[in-house]
Amino acid sequence: MKKLTLFSVFLILFSGCGVSLFNKTDFVRVIDTHFEYKGEPYYFTGTNLWYGCYLGRSGEQGDRERLKRELDYLKELGITNLRVLAASEKSYIRGSLEPAIQSEPGNYNEDLLDGLDYLLSEMRKREMFAVVFLSNYWEWSGGFAVYNRWSGDSNYVDPHNPEQGWTEFMNYSAKFYTNEKANEYYRNFILKIITRKNKYTGDYYYEDPTIMAWQLANEPRPGWGEKGFRNAQNFYKWIDETAAFIRSIDPNHLITTGNEGLGGCLNSDTIFINAHKSPNIDYATFHLWAKNWGWFDAKNIEETYPSTESKAVDYFNEHMKLARQLNKPITLEEFGMPRDNEEYKPGTPVTARDRYFSKLFELTADSAKAGAPIAGTNFWAWGGEGKSADDDYIWEKGDPFTGDPPQEPQGLNSVYMSDKSTLEIISGHAAEMNRLGKIKLFVRN
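and the corresponding structure tokens:
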């Protein structure tokens, strides 16, 4: 691993030195508990467009015209931050994303990497920033479980197998932190991505200010139950060492975990603090999933929404306290809510979602104005022009992307361009957050 780190530094010193036109103020930076861009505060309203590189590819199933239209529309809404995927691994688990960026260790889909180049180049034109996650704790894009299997672990787990299930899968995925061979493959991939040269801009990724942050993975957690608590020290060590490895390749960009917050830390303040206190982690993250955590039932809104909102406010405020303890900024980078009655079709009512988004946006803006360490939000997820190809709302290879990962009903948490009431709420909040910073809105010619 030491040889790999030295090699990565060699690449930086000799492959790109003197080429970049950017200086440190061109990158989003952390100043105390806030972000700064070009000497001004950076507050943002963002979304999850994890499938951006899939739209950006030029070959089969790409849709660059849709991507450009949607980036224009998002910028007009005032959205300046997109959380995107740079990693997917060909999975042994049904319902996972296809095709994958990496079909086996070191075998890359150049069409999808070209799509990532294109996405970042188009975002740069609109002065938008990318938070880029580099793997996944969950199965839907391959992730840790696939790396474990690639390393030769024959006791792999399928969460859809009723004899195994999700608890066993979570602890199998968390074995990744101590799997040296799996992490060797993972670090090779990180090196591949961060030292990649964007064919559309001519810049290496490590020198591209369009990228705000590298994220170790989507929702890494120590595991579940007692096994998770016993694995916590391995979790902290992996976070610190992986972030240090990224820093050795790329001194320009921020680094964060992608963790869900207390919901991904066995509801332990101690685990959350220890997971984010590494000097190699620049800011903290948290997610908020009312349906997934059993708070909210879209088929019983009247009875479940009031307590959902109360729990969400408490959860938000708990993370403000934890971020203050860390003395680092924090972002709410995933939150969503189903359509009323858990419909999936565009055009069906979203009254509960609108109330929920309004409350979280109000809480975010008021907290930011009061000096809290909250920097911004990324709602889940942007569906845009997408629409399920089938009446069963099950995603299959080649179907349009709607923002919902392939194992979930397409439309479950999607915010479509036809959701005018939700978009008005998002736009109003974005204007408020942008006024706190200095990001200019994009005006289409």
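(Above: one complete record from the training split.) Residues 5-19, 440-445 have pLDDT under 50 and may be disordered.
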